[in-house]
Amino acid sequence: MLAIRLQPQGKKKQRQFRIVVQNKKESRDGPIIENLGVYNPKTHPPVSNLKIERIEWWISKGAQLSETVRSLIQRAKENNWDELLKRHKVSKHKKAKKEDKKQPAEGKSEEANKKEQSS
User: Where is the composition biased (Basic and acidic residues) (predicted)?
Assistant: First the structure.
């Protein structure tokens, strides 16, 4: 079975991805059948050289799209990159850190209020 998916390229913090057709059982970095485009999340627009006609041809032959590639193709057809570029995820760890910083500050003020009331 064939899959159209992303294949990572480049350095760790400067990833680019090739959109490729591969056998689904092959490893992610394994041999490819055809290169269909490039996805670079750091540029605008992030997808370049996307071969829509070839992607549709491969889908007609039974290739399955990964969820990310499906989303990228849909955005490329609509030319709607604004949402993708604005989206900013905050990790749970960072959210928890921010909440922890806020809570002790509030807790100290409550303790200070109690000391003032008892004096």
Answer: 97-119
